[in-house]
Amino acid sequence: QVQLVESGGGLVQAGGSLKLSCAASRGTFESYAMGWFRQAPGKDREFVAAINFKGGSTHYADSVKGRFTISGDNARNTVYLQMNGLKPEDTAVYYCAAVNHYSYYRGRFGEQGGYDYWGQGAQVTVSS
User: In this structure, what is the dihedral angle of CA atoms 111, 112, 114, 118, given to the nearest 10 degrees?
Assistant: First the structure.
């Protein structure tokens, strides 16, 4: 069983930055790639970014490319999402999730259904 716990959400003004953290159970990154999704009020949950620690590949949604960076620390079993240049439309609950490597290599890192485990979410609010 994989446990994921997000932290670092909060309120920030447009143009500001926040860094989300997701603490995973020990050894998670050996078997799973990691992703971030977000869900705004009244909208579907959408893919934000993904990273595979086996090889270091990363993927981003077009809406965050160039502003957000996903990274991780194997020793700390933690994955991060650095968010710069935040916009009001980035306001959402952000979820950390784990996807097995088979699904990742099949390109399912952008699909909710490809993920096996989810965190509880962290609220990010960007004021204009």
Answer: 140
Q: Where are the alpha helices (DSSP H) in 5-86?
A: 28-31
What pairs with residue 34 in β-bridges? 51, 98
d(CA 48, CA 54): 20
For the chain, the helix, strand and coil percentages under 3-state DSSP, each to the nearest 5: 15, 50, 40
| pLDDT tens by residue, 86-109 | 999 999 999 999 999 888 988 899
The rounded distance, in Å, linking the Cα atoms of 101 and 107 is: 10
Distances (CA, A) of 124 to 19, 22, 56, 76, 94: 10, 14, 26, 23, 7
The 3-state DSSP class for residue 47 equals: strand
Rg (CA), the chain: 14
Q: Which two tokens stand for residue 80?
A: 């991060």
Whole-number Cα distances in Å, 114 to 20, 24, 30: 22, 18, 17
- How many angstroms separate the CA atoms of 100 and 57, rounded? 14
